Each structure stands twice: as C-alpha cells, then as structure tokens.
Amino acid sequence: MRINRRQFSAGLLAAAGVVGMPGVLRAQAKPRVVVIGGGPGGATVAKYVARDSQGAVEVTMIEPLETFVTCFHSNLYLGDMRSFESICHGYKLGSYGVKHVRQFAAAIDRDKKEVKLADGSAVPYDRLVMAPGIDIKFDSVPGYSEAAAEIMPHGWKPGAQTKLVKKQLDALQDGATIVMVAPPNPYRCPPGPYERVSVMAKVLKAKGHTRSKIIVLDPKDKFSKMALFQECWQKHYPGMVEWMDPKMHGGIKGVDPQAMTVTTDFETIKADMVNVIPAQMAGKIAREAGLVNETGYCPIDATNMKSAIDPNIYVLGDASIAGAMPKSAFAANSQAKVVANAVRGELTGSRTFPARYANTCWSVVAQDDTVKIGGRYEPKDGKIAEIEGFVSKTGEDAGIRLQTSEENMGWYAGITADIFS
Ligand SMILES: Cc1cc2nc3c(=O)[nH]c(=O)nc-3n(C[C@H](O)[C@H](O)[C@H](O)COP(=O)(O)OP(=O)(O)OC[C@H]3O[C@@H](n4cnc5c(N)ncnc54)[C@H](O)[C@@H]3O)c2cc1C
Predict the structure, then answer these.
(1) Which end of the chain offers a freer environment for a tag, N or C, measured as fewer CB atoms within 10 Å?
(2) What's the N-to-C CA distance of the chain in angstroms?
(3) What is the pLDDT of residue 28?
(4) Which residue has a Cα nearest atom 50 of ligand 1?
(5) Is the CB of 169 under 6 A from ligand 1?
(6) Please, what is the Cα angle at 101 between 31 and 331, to 5 degrees?
(7) Tell me: the pLDDT tens digits for 232-279?
(8) Reduced to 3 states, what is the DSSP secondary structure of residue 273?
(9) Residue 127 pLDDT > 60
(10) What number does CATH give the domain 139-279?
(11) Residue 29 confidence (pLDDT)
C-alpha cells in the first residue's frame, strides 16, 4: 500500500504524540507568528518565540521604527541624568530568526488571518500578537489637538515630543510657571507624571530658579506613590510644586495654546510652559480591528493574554486591560514571556506554564533619591490580580534611596538588553 505525504505526516505527528492535541497546527511547514509593535511588549514576544522555538516557528515583527526610543527613563533625560542617545535602542533580534518588517500595519483581516501593510502587501498569520501601545485622546482636553501638542507638548510618546519638553524646560527663566495637566486613569505609567514633576523641579532648582513654580492640575484625587512624591517635593523643592485635585481647581475646562493659558472652573492660569498629558486608549490598529471594548482598551484572558474577542490574537502591554497591573514597560515585558510561552504551546505543542506576572515601577524624585512600587500578579476570578505588593516608605534614609536609585539603573540596563538584543 502506498501512503501519501499527508498520511505520512499524520503518522509522524501521531508518533510524536501531537495528534488530537488541541490547537496544534499541522499541514504547513512552519506555523507563523506575526507581532505588531516592537516596544517592550512586542519585541520581547518576538524574541522569545523565535529563540525558544529554535526555528520551528516563523516570527515576523511589524514595526516601522529602526531605533526605538524608550519612554521609560525619558524623565531621566529631562532631568539631566541620562543622554537622549542612551534611551535609543536598535533591534538586534535577527540572530534569533526574527524577521523585522519596517512598515506600519494598516489593517487586520481577522477572517483571512492576515495583516495588511501600509504598502498594500499582506502578511498571513496563524497567531497574531498585538502590542501597539497607546494613542493619545487629544480631544479629552478642550482646546488640545495634535497641532497644539507642538506648543504644549504631552511628551507621552517617545522621541520628538520628549525632546520638545526638554527644549522648553531648558529655555525657562527664573520665575517661570509650568502647568501640567495630568491624565485620568487608566494611562501609561501611573507614577510617570509625578516623576516628571520631580525632575522638572530638579532642573529648575539646579539653575537656582527659586521663584519658579510647577502647578499640577489633576483630574484625579489621588495618584500612585502620592505620599512619597509629596514628601519628596516638600523636602527637595519646598514651595515649588503645587498639586491640585478636582476639589481645588473645580475641573479642567481647557487649554489655549496661542494664549498659553489653562482654564479651570475657578481661574485662568497664564503659563510659560504647559505639559498636557491627555486621556489615552489602545493604539489605532487594535481599535480598528475591533479588539477593544467600551473602555478603549483590549480585554484579554488573564491566564495567557489572549484577546477575549479573537482566539487567534493575543494583546499585551499598554493596549491591554491587564487587571491590577499598571501600564508599564516592566509589565509589558513580563506579560510578553507569558504570551510567548502560550503561543509556542499552541503552535508547537511545547510545555506551557501557569501565568505569573511581575512589575516594579521606580521613580526618580531627586539625584540619588528614587522610590519604587511593585508586586506579583496571577490570574484570579477572570482578572489579573495582585498577589503581593510592596512600596517604598516615607522617611526612608538616604542609603536606601541611593540603593533604589542604583536598582533603577540596573533594571533599565537589564530590561533593554532583554527586549532589544
Ligand atoms: C514619561 C514616561 C515614563 C515612563 N517610565 C517608565 C518606567 O520607569 N518603568 C516602566 O516600566 N515603564 C515606564 N513607562 C511606561 C512604558 O514606556 C510603557 O508602558 C511601555 O513602553 C509599553 O510598552 P508596549 O510594548 O505596550 O508599547 P510601546 O512601547 O508604545 O510600543 C508600541 C510599538 O508599536 C508600534 N506600533 C503602533 N502601531 C503600529 C502599527 N499599526 N504597525 C506597526 N507598529 C505599530 C509603535 O511604533 C511602537 O514602537 C513610562 C512612560 C512614560 C510616558
């Protein structure tokens, strides 16, 4: 009896124990994983799937950038603690077999399982991993727009916006007023705005600008590491930072970039620099593919970061609704390891492990003075829940803060090596 190739392959798979294994793909030479986004989420998944499958999975990462600028530690650049070059990273993932397509993903055809690129070509997938990060909701602050961001930068996406914040900060004279419009929850990097306030104050203090002021108009009545930040502002920059919650400003009514004013329910503040950090949502490609819910972010299965809307797609990082985990690079990198394990399991039958997630967010409040918050997370009742957490204490001695500062620098070196090379 002759057996054809299909029967032969089926026999081999049966011998290998994979026939009947749910979700294991057969019938094609190599299963294809396509990753959209080369940030901490996407690049880490691409690397780990390619590296650990040792050529058994074809991995394509779609990311227009050749060099990724990290938002994380961009505040250290603003605070003269890092050069801009030191937060720029080229991709060195080719050695693992990751194919980097330097284009924008224009659309996803979920029925055909393919990604349409900006040049009109299509990239087919067996599993798609989405990590496009966030988009700014410009219209969440009346008077603000993409054009207004050239005058009143948000600096919440890396690169040109970060440089503009730095340029404006460095040009200020003593006696200047900076107004920050802080974002509502949920947004990228919960302690980030307050770390930024701290490093801006550090720059002003170093220049002897004792008459300058930073006014923070917050739509929230509390924020991450609030007691720690407020203690540090008092200690390092007394009288310089004025934080106002909605009870104090009555509501943020809008900005006028031409007049350089910010209006609240109670007053119109004339500023020399305005940093508007609006509300945020999942990146456009995820929204247009119908992967978001009413929150503007993507619901996922807490056990593996699979989209709750499409079983062939995983979503991680800032674009996802990751329960108790904040939107951070640490979190995206941690979720990426869970996704890589789950994707390989589905496509090659490799062993999968229960999801375990972790996060730490360090914030620089002054030179050699850094605080942190973090935790471990696991799936619980359909959500990613915090299992244990920790936070720096107020009143800690300088030695601990110096050690935490060194940890922060070590973390950055380690995570960027893990993501990009
Ligand atoms: C000021 C500031 C300070 C921060 N500090 C810290 C910190 O200290 N620690 C920390 O852990 N986190 C920090 N963060 C948060 C951190 O930067 C983000 O959480 C992290 O970058 C999210 O990773 P991501 O992979 O989900 O998305 P991103 O980093 O945004 O990456 C998404 C990528 O997808 C690409 N992309 C988007 N759409 C498409 C498309 N259609 N086609 C192809 N590619 C696409 C983009 O070009 C981008 O490169 C900070 C953020 C800010 C703003």
Answers:
(1) N
(2) 51
(3) 62
(4) 72
(5) no
(6) 75
(7) 999 999 999 999 999 999 999 999 999 999 999 999 999 999 999 999
(8) strand
(9) yes
(10) 3.50.50.60
(11) 82
Report the CATH number of the 29-133+283-355 domain.
3.50.50.60
Report the SS3 class of residue 230. Answer: helix
Going by CA atoms, what residue is nearest to atom 35 of ligand 1? 37
Handedness of CA 185, 180, 226, 409 (dihedral sign): positive
**Quick one: pLDDT at residue 32?**
98
Q: Which of 15, 63, 60 is nearest to 39 (CA)?
A: 63
Place of tokens 């299909």: 6
Does residue 246 have a cis bond before it (omega within 30 degrees)? no
Ligand 1 in contact with 296 (CB < 6 A)?
no
Query: How is residue 128 written in tokens?
Result: 């798609």
Give the separation between CA 150 and CA 153, rounded to whole angstroms. Answer: 6
pLDDT of residue 164: 98
| pLDDT tens digit sequence for 7-51 | 434 334 433 333 334 444 445 689 999 999 999 999 999 999 999
Residue 386's φ and ψ, nearest 5 degrees, are -80, 125
Q: At 139, list the tokens.
A: 């219209």
Q: Six-digit token pair at 353?
A: 């492990």
Q: With contact defined as beta carbons under 8 Å apart, do 419 and 333 qualify?
A: yes
The share of the chain scoring above pLDDT 70, in percent, equals 93
The DSSP code sequence of 338-395 is HHHHHHHHHHH--------EEEEEEEEEETTEEEEEEEEEEEETTEEEEEEEEEPPTT
Top mutation candidate among 89, 102, 189 for ligand 1, by most atoms within 8 Å of CB: 189
Q: Which residue has the tokens 């603000």?
A: 144
Task: Indicate whether residue 135 lines ligand 1 (CB < 6 A).
Answer: no
Tokens of 197: 């306030």
Domain with CATH 3.50.50.60 in the chain: 29-133+283-355, 139-279
Integer Rg of the chain from CA: 23
Nearest CA to ligand 1 atom 53: 156
Could you tell me the distance, in angstroms and rounded to a whole number, from the CA of residue 190 to the centre of ligand 1? 13
pLDDT band at 6 (very low <50, low <70, confident <90, very high): very low
Mean pLDDT calculated for residue range 158-186: 97
What is the β-pairing status of strands 114-117 and 105-109?
antiparallel
CA of 41 to the centre of ligand 1 (A): 8
